Amino acid sequence: MVKGLTGRQLKFLLEEHVEKIHETSLRILEEVGVKSTSRRILEVFSRSGMDVDTDRGIVKISRSYVKEALRKAPKKVVIHGRSQENAITLEDGRIYFGLGGTPTPYILDAESGELRRPGVRDVADATRLGDALPNIDFIMTIAGAFDVPYEAEYLYEWKAILSNTSKPIVYPAPGIVDAEKVVRIGKAIAGDEDSFRRKPMFGVYVEMPSPLTLHDANENIIVLAENEVPIVIGQMPQLGATAPVTFAGAAALSNAENLAALTLTQIINPGAPFIYGGYVTLMDQRTGRCAYGSPEFAMGNIVDSALASYYGLPCFGWGGCSDSKEPDVQAGAEVMMNSLIAAFSGVNLIHDFGYLAGGSIGSMEMAVIGDEVAGMIKRILRGVRVDDENLAFNVVKSIGPGGHFLSHPHTLKHLRDEIYIPEIFSRDSEAKWIKSGKPSIRDTVRRRVGEILKKHRPEPLPEDTQRKIEEIIRGK
Amino acid sequence: MSTSLVNELREAVLSYDLDTLVNAVKKSLGKGLSAVDVINALTIVLREIGDKFQAGDLFLAELVAIAENVKTAISEVLEPELKKIGGERKSLGKVVIGTVHGDIHDIGKNIVASMLFAAGFEVYDLGKDVPVEEFIRKTREVNADIIAMSALLSTTLPIQREVIEVLGREGLRDKVKVMVGGAPVTKEWAEEIGADGYGEDAIEAVKVAKTLSGARE
Questions:
Q1: Would you say residue B217 has pLDDT above 80?
Q2: Which site among B52, B63, B154 would you substitute to test the A interface, given the most A Cβ atoms closer than 10 Å to its Cβ?
Q3: Is the torsion defined by CA of A133, A136, A137, A140 positive or negative?
């Protein structure tokens, strides 16, 4: 069990503002409604007695249903991973950092420095890297399986990820077919259905298209809720594009979408684990791309966490990502900004570490840099402990004026807890730096990526389980 | 081309207000200018707008508003005017456009469709989540010059390749040019799948479409 540090120290929104956003979301659900292209989803709403216009595919959700869903949804969700020691508890502002997100069309090859299409092997390597990085708590991806038939891409990515980490996983499985297969894979790994339900080793990331739409691909919500797989919502309304350009309006829209998805899950299976993802993002006005390094993207975490905390739900946010194309000054600045804001907002799952070019490029180098940033942030969040042992009056008294604390037992005892020692950021003297050929941070990082990939062997999946997974992927 | 006409239309276009633009267009027609003159002046303004956007001085939301307003002014005021005198708008070519099957990310495609129309193309917008066969069917039906496809997801990019392959099997590949776009699409990807053109943004897409259709700037 990884005891996540508590963030939620940053509050930009007053309670009354959160309530106003909430109220606007309820009005959106009641007066505008949510559109679905899926008959199955509309049927679920309809069976529960909601106002469904089947011709237009619009369901209007009255506040009583939302209230009921909020009452039933669990306040705490645990994603276990394959090994219990890595389990993460999503509740009350505890923060965890995650490698990457959904698959990236490019990978920045750490060895050659070139951009190329990733394959299954890269997904496996990226996962191994994430498994080894000490401050990465859960795994998504910074690659993609472009060398398998695209219809089975996600499933082969799931296999590569599950085989290469025992940390908790969050990954997409759009549509009924992929969701059913992923659930079967989970059961095969857990050994039986009951163990999988009690201790899911992963959550499934579900993207709802904004504004206010539940697409056919979102039918996976039905399968996942039935099987009590944690559902992680990320619908990404973009300021001025798929949402109002004003932050409050986008937040209300995003919140309405989350409440609609939440209500759907709780109708299907009361108590089904749901992770709120009030994902307010931004479409860059010059390029049309989703701007992962923007201040607004970072700020989305604040709104996300404020609303999730208002409802007492666990939440999903983002950090550790950049719009730059390589690990450079821009990337460093953006990554520190968004991951620090996310952590201090108390977002439970902070994903996207290792993403460059707004999620188009996965970078192992950037993941390693992000891991260092995550380590620094975790240190800051551990804060200052104030008690007799930490105030250390007796230590000061024993050293007295003019002495030093370097070799004092108190120093040796607390050194490693109290001080963050960087893995890759250099604090060498300029003389040593010049003597060693003025290495850049990328030289250091590339070496570390190489070492980890050469040495790190995650706990393997038993061979018969691997065989079962392959059968499930290939079967109907 | 009268500079005052271009100036008046530019001002109206940059108001981002449809009524203002429609009134300016009607006023020009009232002064006895022909619909062809007005369309030509709008084309000049749009080219300037494209340059401004590419220089980073105009933003996407503004570009989209302009493209939509010009589209409406042309289709609702200028084209009917042309019809009255038995003419029609000079077409740069027919474009069948859509976001490929499995993908619903269509904002970029919509912008490109509006810009292509405003630039003088006949645009057949198939929408989003468009099956491969639908691209083929529509291309045949309207005898399209260009197919333009967008995709955003790693699982839907390969559909662009599939459409090109089916065009080949159906014996249509030589008859139609293929353009691809979308955030993860690059020049290399376009080359890899055998597309004829790729534009980094909507302005670039219009330029590429003009080149592919043999139209002059």
A1: no
A2: B154
A3: negative
